[in-house]
Each structure stands twice: as structure tokens, then as C-alpha cells.
Design a protein that fits this description.
alpha+beta; three-stranded mixed β-sheet; 4 helices; 3 strands; Antitoxin_Phd/YefM; YefM-like_sf; Antitoxin
Length: 78
Amino acid sequence: MLRISVEEAARNLKSLLERVARGEEVILLEQDKAVARLVPPLQNAERLASMKQFRDSLEIKGESLSATVINARIEERR
């Protein structure tokens, strides 16, 4: 993993993007503190797997959204 200053990254952006495209991760530093990360994009299979994992981790509490909307409309009419 390459760590590079923002100023140097601006001067060498094309070569940094080529490295990232090959799978490398680049950390951008400002005053020796990490401010950004350049990473290659996820492939479709990876993106879909992480979305499924996220959805599976959600717990629905309370009534459904449609029931909430219906109940709110009923309350407005009163």
C-alpha cells in the first residue's frame, strides 16, 4: 500500500491511477494524516455480495412503511 502526499498525488495522478487499476491501494496524506484512499472499483459480483450481506444484516422493527403511511393518513382525516 502506497502512502503519498496530496500534492505529489496531484503531480502524478495518471501513474497513481494506473497502479490502482492494477489492484493497488493508495493512501493520500495531508500533513502526515490520511485524508483519502484510492482503491480499485469492486467487480459486480463483489458489489452484489456486499449488498446482500448488508440487507441480510438489517433488522426491521415496528410496523411496515406502508402501514405507517396508511395510519398517518387516517390520523390526518380525524
